[in-house]
């Protein structure tokens, strides 16, 4: 009911204004120069931070849509306007006090209508929601702003809506520029304001990609020109001019200049699109014409093509025969190679199997193809299936026990299969029986160890002979010199030492020959060369000069016995390398590589190696010795790796060889 009464009063006021306008229009028509003869300059207030409607430029002058509009009004009526920036509340008070003549960009509402007079609307704008891009999925309408921190202009008509919303943290600012800055500085979650103003400042600060302006229509407001209550002459002048500008569409041009700077480009793009559309349609018409002509020619060639089909059918029969021959050829190859092949589809259903796979698995081919879930087969390849589920491919080794409980070693690898379109169609399992190879490898490893052990025997015999000689001498002299105190003292001093020496030699030999898992402990550098004395007899016999430089302060964190074996192997190789050279030198150096790594360098002046030999020295069974097995360096490489170390070799023909072993140091 209250709404109807208020609406009726508003209609009456508008009718009253219309009658006044008609009267003034009649007077102005008769005496147009007399109305504004006394006042030629009017003071117009506008907001300083409402871009693009009104804002201060770099020179501190007001510019924007509102100012261009007022300039059109001034030009149309032959008057001058002076513009001053003001806040809306300050401007309204100044207008009521008569300090200024009009406010451009004022929004109309019924409360202000009792205090000011307003022209007709020249632009209608609703408030919009401006949010960070990351909250695009969370906020769509006003109802989504609950529990959010909202900033808005305290003069905006939408403020009453937010005051009635629960659970909303509300912050008001003096103008929309301040609201945008509050949002950009992350002091608020949402800004409610003019979308054109928001877009202007977001582009100014290069933040348009980081924020979104939602097209939510909130409290539409009319932008008008406000004059002092009762100033009907100025109101009529502006209202009449606005009517003319709207009729001539000049207002649209002013607005487009600021809010649609790319409209001409859009029109040009549209014209270009139409141009190309016409060209495309013309091309389509030509293509259709060509197709029609071509179709007529095709009818004439149908008979010739029919004759060719007969020849093609013959060729197809030949191709089918070739495919069948190719399949037979492939089957013969698969069934005669020494590698077992089994193929699976994507669900690991067996699709094919060759004869070698059946022989390796000791399962008939028919059983493999017909019994995909054969327990023994699935058990053997269970680990593979787990790896494949992780999209992993590679080579693995498994142990299979046949019905007679004999161990069989199989190496196998899996590969994905693809069709001609690079789409995966299944998996291919290839396998080889390496039981005999592994058995031979074990025998060769044993032979290598026995060979190395034989080299140690000569050194051990020499080392044992010296203390035994001393012990025998003391025993021979014991009957005749037992009563001599000095003899007994010398006997007590030297005999235990020689016995301990014998015990140490035997202990080291047993530890070297006894296989066991790695035992990483701390050991000093001088302990690494304790067993090299076994090779001294051989080096003295062959007149080899042996030098050693050791940093006794170094403490390694390794398995001492394993590194003993490595050093014995490398020194033995150096002995063989310098046997036939004129300069026979072997040198071992133990020093520090860095704070965490120690370095053992074994160099000789032997015959050296070619690059081709260097490329294969660590490969199993590779040797250039007539009686060598080729596992010494392979085992040495593996032992160094097991001790978290690394080994490098440098060698040139007739220039000697240098092995560098890097091992971890003990760090307290």
Question: What descriptive keywords fit this protein?
Answer:
668 residues, 5-stranded antiparallel sheet, disordered N terminus
Give a brief outline of the structure:
With 668 residues, the chain is of the alpha+beta class.
Write a structural description.
- With 668 residues, the chain is of the alpha+beta class.
- The protein is built from 21 helices and 24 strands.
- Strands 1, 5, 6, 7, 8, 9, 10, 11 and 12 form a nine-stranded mixed beta sheet that branches. Strands 14-13-17-16-15 form a five-stranded antiparallel beta sheet. Strands 19-21-22-24-23 form a five-stranded mixed beta sheet.
- Strand 21 and strand 22 (597-604) form a beta hairpin.
- Helix 3 (65-77) crosses helix 9 (232-247), helix 16 runs antiparallel to helix 17 (485-513) and helix 19 (560-578) runs antiparallel to helix 21 (632-642).
- The two termini are 92 Å apart.
Question: What's the layout of helices and strands?
Answer:
Layout: H1 2-30, H2 32-35, E1 41-46, E2 49-50, E3 54-56, E4 62-63, H3 65-77, E5 80-85, H4 88-97, E6 102-107, H5 110-113, E7 116-118, E8 123-132, E9 149-153, H6 159-163, E10 169-173, H7 176-184, E11 190-194, H8 195-204, E12 211-228, H9 232-247, H10 250-259, H11 263-336, E13 340-345, E14 350-353, H12 355-361, H13 365-370, H14 375-380, H15 382-389, E15 395-401, E16 407-418, E17 424-433, H16 435-481, H17 485-513, E18 521-524, H18 536-541, E19 545-550, E20 555-558, H19 560-578, E21 585-592, E22 597-604, H20 611-614, H21 632-642, E23 646-651, E24 657-664
Parallel strand pairs: 1-5, 1-6, 9-10, 9-11, 19-21
Antiparallel strand pairs: 2-3, 3-4, 6-12, 7-12, 8-11, 8-12, 13-14, 13-17, 15-16, 16-17, 18-20, 21-22, 22-24, 23-24
Helix pairs in contact: 3-9, 16-17, 19-21
């Amino acid at each position: 009911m209250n709404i109807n009464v208020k609406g009726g009063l508003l209609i009456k006021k508008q009718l009253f204004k219309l009658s006044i306008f008609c009267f003034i229009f009649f007077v102005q028509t008769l005496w147009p120069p007399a109305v504004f003869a006394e006042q030629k300059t009017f003071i117009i207030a506008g907001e300083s931070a409402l871009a693009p409607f009104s804002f201060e430029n770099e020179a501190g002058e007001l510019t924007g849509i509102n100012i261009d509009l007022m300039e059109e009004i001034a030009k149309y009526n032959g008057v001058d306007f002076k513009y001053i920036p003001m806040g809306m509340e300050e401007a309204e008070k100044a207008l009521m006090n008569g300090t200024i003549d009009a406010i451009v960009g004022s929004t109309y509402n019924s409360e202000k209508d009792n205090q000011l007079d307003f022209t007709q609307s020249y632009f209608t704008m609703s408030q919009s929601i401006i949010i960070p891009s990351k909250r695009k999925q969370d906020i769509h309408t006003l109802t989504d702003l609950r529990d959010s921190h909202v900033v808005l202009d305290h003069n905006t008509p939408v403020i009453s809506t937010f005051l009635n919303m629960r659970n909303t943290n509300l912050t008001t600012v003096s103008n929309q520029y301040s609201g945008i800055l509050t949002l950009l500085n992350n002091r608020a979650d949402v800004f409610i304001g003019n979308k054109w103003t928001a877009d202007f400042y977001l582009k100014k600060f290069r933040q348009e990609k980081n924020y979104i302006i939602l097209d939510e229509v909130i409290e539409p407001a009319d932008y008008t020109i406000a004059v002092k209550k009762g100033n009907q002459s100025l109101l009529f002048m502006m209202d009449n001019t606005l009517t003319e500008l709207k009729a001539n569409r000049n207002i649209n041009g002013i607005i487009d200049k600021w809010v649609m700077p790319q409209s001409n480009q859009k029109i040009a793009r549209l014209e270009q699109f139409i141009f190309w559309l016409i060209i495309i349609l013309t091309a389509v018409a030509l293509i259709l014409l060509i197709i029609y002509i071509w179709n007529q020619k095709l009818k004439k060639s149908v008979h010739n093509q029919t004759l060719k089909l007969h020849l093609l059918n013959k060729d197809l029969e030949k191709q089918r025969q070739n495919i069948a021959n190719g399949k037979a050829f492939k089957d013969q190859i698969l069934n005669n190679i020494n590698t077992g092949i089994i193929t699976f589809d994507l669900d690991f259903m067996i699709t094919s199997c060759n004869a070698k796979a059946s022989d390796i698995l000791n399962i008939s081919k028919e059983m493999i193809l017909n019994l995909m879930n054969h327990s023994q087969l699935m058990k053997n390849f269970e680990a593979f299936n787990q790896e494949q589920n992780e999209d992993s491919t590679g080579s693995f080794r498994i142990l299979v026990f046949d019905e007679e409980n004999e161990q069989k070693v199989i190496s196998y690898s899996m590969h994905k299969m693809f069709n001609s379109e690079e789409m995966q169609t299944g998996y291919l399992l290839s396998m080889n029986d390496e039981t005999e190879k592994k058995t031979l490898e074990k025998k060769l490893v044993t032979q290598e160890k026995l060979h190395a052990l034989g080299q140690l025997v000569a050194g051990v015999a020499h080392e044992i002979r010296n203390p035994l000689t001393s012990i025998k001498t003391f025993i021979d002299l014991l009957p005749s010199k037992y009563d001599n105190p000095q003899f007994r003292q010398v006997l007590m001093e030297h005999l235990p030492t020689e016995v301990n020496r014998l015990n140490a030699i035997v202990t080291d030999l047993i530890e070297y020959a006894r296989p066991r898992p790695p035992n990483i402990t701390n050991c000093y550098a001088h302990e690494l060369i304790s067993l090299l004395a076994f090779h001294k007899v051989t080096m003295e016999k062959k007149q080899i000069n042996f030098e050693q430089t050791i940093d006794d302060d170094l403490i390694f964190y390794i398995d001492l016995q394993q590194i003993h074996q490595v050093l014995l192997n490398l020194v033995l190789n150096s002995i063989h390398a310098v046997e036939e050279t004129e300069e026979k030198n072997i040198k071992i150096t133990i020093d520090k590589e860095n704070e965490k790594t120690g370095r053992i360098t074994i160099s000789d002046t032997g015959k050296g190696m070619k690059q081709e030999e260097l490329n294969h020295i660590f490969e199993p069974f590779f040797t250039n010795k007539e009686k060598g097995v080729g596992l010494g360096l392979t085992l040495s490489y593996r032992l160094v790796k097991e001790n978290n170390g690394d080994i490098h070799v440098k060698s040139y023909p007739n220039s000697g060889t240098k092995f560098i072993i890097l091992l971890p140091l003990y760090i307290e």
